[in-house]
Write a structure and sequence with these properties.
Blueprint (H helix, E strand, L loop, with lengths): L8 H11 L2 E9 L4 E9 L3 E8 L2 E5 L7 E6 L15 E7 L2 E6 L2 E6 L7 E5 L11 E4 L2 E5 L5 E5 L7 E6 L4 E7 L2 E6 L2 E6 L7 E7 L6 E5 L2 E5 L5 E5 L7 E6 L7 E5 L2 E5 L1 E9 L4 E19 L3 E6 L3 E8 L5 E3 L3 E3 L8 E10 L7 E6 L4 E3 L11 E9 L5 E9 L6 E8 L14 E3 L7 E3 L17
Parallel strand pairs: 29-35
Antiparallel strand pairs: 1-27, 2-3, 3-4, 4-5, 6-7, 7-8, 8-9, 10-11, 11-12, 12-13, 14-15, 15-16, 16-17, 18-19, 19-20, 20-21, 22-23, 23-24, 24-25, 25-26, 26-27, 28-30, 30-33, 31-34, 32-33, 34-35, 36-37
């Protein structure tokens, strides 16, 4: 935070205009039928496709870039062409012209999107129904599909409706891929494998990049290769010479860099809790935009002109990147989840509020909706670039205390912000002993898993929707 007491007012305004001119303005929001959203794709700057594991796929007209004009809700098991996809769960998507390709729980699907208000499934590609398919990319007449330990499938799509398998690249765990000219880059565990695919039937390995973490996504723009590596942020490499990539810089996004998309000369990053906008200026990769979306940002798409589309767990949001003349409120978290607190005791947590706009953020009101949560230092007005850590104490008097911390301000696109407050919820609370359980393995093992057999070890539980 800039200390106003030691900087003259005139100089302060000058400094703030340099340090805080750019951010993300919310321009539209949609709550679609689909949820567990996993991917997003912009097609020729006109159509946005959202691919979700549950309840299908969504199509939007984004010719008016800041608006999400919903066109259609679509399932791979519906539409013409004999889709044959009953129960098929969509995963990732790439599209070109009038054709979109979807990886799914039941193979690689081809969809005619010439009329995005009425997409037509053309069915699954032969030989893919038994594969665990992930990310994919296309470039001119080449389509590459990641299939984890079954490698990367390379297709000739000179006939877009009927991909023809040319070759398969062996991998340990292919998760992400990007094609640039005659070169393919494959995220294979903690490595980027680089191959020349001038002859699509016989790829030739020409290089490798080792990364500090598992590769989540790849993006290429102007001979720069961006690599999303989860909790280690984003790396950038110069690939002017593909067989000799040069490391340039890293930016640690702070949470988990999951999916990335280029626009203009910048990179949009879905960082789980927020969106980051990064720019490589020839010397370093640095943050030039930020927005905590309030939701779990799973994937991202972008188009030139500064428009970013955040595909979240169960929602879609559109943002415009650029200078914000007015006030702009940002929270570092939209949830305060307190550890278990004995009745009669208390616990404190903080939420950091920042004004990323260019006018003073004026707070008209801020309060908690549950009397068990008390604000120690109510939020005051913030000059551009200023932050305040608001302390909220949870005073435990009964179980399952839930409520919210609400902020009302002069931010034009988010005049009301709601941060949830949860204490001693019904279920698992931080600091409580985990209840023992015994469950049978359904994959990656046999027999039963007993939690108490793993005392002293770190156990991570990940919950997913059942098939």
């Amino acid at each position: 935070m800039i200390k106003k007491s030691i900087v003259p007012t005139g100089i302060l305004c000058c400094i703030l205009s340099v340090l805080f001119p750019l951010n993300l303005t919310l321009t539209d929001y949609h709550d679609p039928t689909a949820h567990h959203i996993l991917d997003a794709e912009v097609v020729e700057d006109q159509i946005l496709i959202i691919s979700a594991m549950v309840q299908g796929i969504e199509f939007y007209n984004i010719s008016n870039s800041g608006q999400l004009n919903h066109l259609a809700h679509f399932s791979l098991s519906s539409g013409g062409g004999g889709g044959q996809g009953g129960g098929t769960k969509s995963n990732c998507v790439r599209a070109t012209g009038n054709i979109a390709y979807f990886t799914s729980s039941n193979g690689l699907y081809v969809v005619n999107i010439s009329n995005p208000s009425n997409p037509q499934s053309l069915g699954a590609v032969s030989g893919t129904s038994n594969l665990n398919l992930e990310n994919l990319d296309l470039y001119e007449n080449v389509l590459a599909v990641c299939a984890h330990d079954d490698g990367v499938l390379l297709y000739n799509i000179s006939n877009p409706q009927s991909p023809s398998l040319s070759s398969t690249i062996s991998t340990n765990n292919a998760w992400a891929t990007a094609i640039y000219q005659n070169t393919i880059y494959i995220g294979d565990d903690n490595n980027i494998r680089i191959l020349d695919i001038s002859n699509l039937s016989s790829p030739i390995a020409i290089g490798t990049i080792e990364t500090s973490n598992a590769v989540k996504d790849l993006a290429i723009q102007d001979n720069l290769l961006y690599i999303a590596i989860g909790s280690d942020g984003v790396n950038v490499y110069d690939i002017t010479t593909p067989q000799d990539p040069q490391y340039l810089d890293n930016f640690n996004t702070g949470t988990m860099a999951n999916r990335i998309a280029t626009f203009d000369d910048k990179l949009a990053v879905s960082d789980w809790e927020d969106i980051d906008v990064l720019h490589f200026d020839g010397m370093s990769l640095h943050q030039v935009g930020y927005k905590n979306t309030g939701n779990r940002s799973m994937a991202i798409a972008a188009k030139d002109g500064g428009f970013i589309y955040s595909a979240e767990w169960a929602s879609v949001q559109a943002f415009e990147f650029g200078e914000i003349a007015q006030a702009d409120i940002d929270l570092n978290t939209w949830e305060l989840n307190y550890p278990y607190v004995e009745n009669g005791s208390s616990s404190s947590l903080f939420v950091e509020i920042t004004n990323n706009g260019n006018e003073t953020l004026i707070i008209s009101d801020n309060y908690t909706t549950n009397s068990q949560f008390t604000i120690v230092n109510p939020l005051t007005s913030l000059v551009p670039g200023e932050s305040q850590n608001v302390e909220i104490i949870y005073n435990a008097t009964s179980s399952n205390a839930s409520g919210s911390y609400r902020i009302y301000s002069n931010d034009p696109d988010e005049p009301e912000i709601v941060c949830e407050t949860n204490g001693n919820i019904d279920g698992a609370n931080i600091g409580e002993p985990a209840p023992d359980f015994n469950l049978s393995y359904v994959a990656n093992g046999n027999g039963n898993f007993q939690l108490s057999d793993h005392l002293g070890e770190v156990v991570v539980l990940a919950f997913f929707a059942p098939n």
